[in-house]
Amino acid sequence: MTILITGATGQLGRLVIDSLLERGAEPQSIVAGARDTAKASDLAARGIRVVELDYDTPATVQAAVGGADSVLLISSSAVGQRVAQHQAVIDAAKATGVAKLVYTSAPKATTSDLVLAPEHKATEELIAASGIPSVILRNNWYTENYAGSFAQATESGVLAASVGEGRVASASRRDFADAAAAVLLEDGHTGAVYELGGDVAWNFDDLAAAIAEVSGRPVAYQALSTDEHATALSEAGLDAGTVGFVTALDAGIRGGALADTDGTLARLIGRPTTPLVEGLRAIA
User: Fold this and answer.
1) Which sign, positive or negative, has the C-alpha torsion 97, 102, 105, 109?
2) How far is 171 from 78, CA to CA, in rounded Å?
3) CA–CA separation, 82 vs 119, rounded Å?
4) How far is Cα 209 from Cα 218, in angstroms, rounded to an integer?
5) Among 88, 171, 206, 219, which has the highest number of CB atoms less than 10 A from its own CB?
6) Smallest Cα–Cα separation from 213: which of 129, 284, 265, 272?
7) Considering just the CA atoms, what is the radius of gyration of the chain in Å?
8) Which DSSP helix (H) or strand (E) runs through 195?
9) How far apart are the first and last CA of the chain?
10) Virtual CA dihedral for 75, 79, 85, 89, nearest 10 degrees?
């Protein structure tokens, strides 16, 4: 069985490859798709075949997907361009008869009002319409997403956000990578839509306390209104588009978009998810 990983030189892609190898996959069975193949020289040194795969260049997508039995479509980081980019992979997978397409989506993508959800919803709909046997992994937040917050709060002693009492069921990126590797290698997942989150849904008081524990410095959560948050971000030099995006994300968290956890991720990976403090310790 040949497994193609798109975005293989990204943080998640590399961890998925590590997990596949740890779970017994042979290096020659893994194909690493990368826009810049020079960044994958370390993967090639491990016996993994590296191919060019640029979401914006369909010919490279078609060539990369050809011959793959399973494909992990790691969602593009190009917000606003994702649907067309994902479409290229889906079209190639359908044309070449891929047996399993695994996609990294967003929590409750088809019903969520999270600002990032629409592109994931559209991608899921394209996959369903294609008829390709698929597995949808609706990944919650990576704890690593808070690396910037960790650094800022450690320096200032304040964790400021407009999330209210909203909770986040985050897990470490490695946890989600292990889940992807599991469904790629195991039978029985085709057709599943998995809502994946950490074992504990924490609030921002918990996040502030965890940052304080790891950094050894006092940190307190400062709850802001959306307007207060927007003003603070603007005064910090962020442009209007970024301010709107950040405050919209916080509004989604405040509304519960990232709060659900039912243990599915832990069951898939066969162990508890990484606790918040340990995830932050790895960041530090």
Assistant:
1) positive
2) 22
3) 6
4) 8
5) 171
6) 284
7) 19
8) strand 193-196
9) 38
10) 10
Q: H helices within the chain, ranges in order?
A: 11-22, 41-45, 58-65, 82-96, 117-130, 147-156, 173-185, 204-215, 226-235, 240-254, 264-269, 276-283
**How are strands ordered across the β-sheet holding 3-5?**
49-52, 30-34, 3-5, 70-73, 100-105, 134-139, 193-196
Tens place of pLDDT for every residue, the chain, 284 residues?
999 999 999 999 999 999 999 999 999 999 999 999 999 999 999 999 999 999 999 999 999 999 999 999 999 988 889 999 999 999 999 999 999 999 999 999 999 989 999 999 999 999 999 999 999 999 999 999 999 999 999 999 999 999 999 999 999 999 999 999 999 999 989 999 999 999 999 999 999 999 999 999 999 999 999 999 999 999 999 999 999 999 999 999 999 999 999 999 999 999 999 999 999 999 98
Q: Are residues 66 and 96 in contact, defined by beta-carbon separation less than 8 angstroms?
A: yes
Among 38, 98, 50, 95, residue whose Cα is nearest residue 73 = 98
Q: What is the DSSP string of 85-123?
A: HHHHHHHHHHHHT-SEEEEEE-TTTTT---TTHHHHHHH
By CB atoms closer than 10 A (0-12, 13-18, 19+), residue 131 is exposed
Contact 211, 154 (CB under 8 A): yes
pTM: 0.96
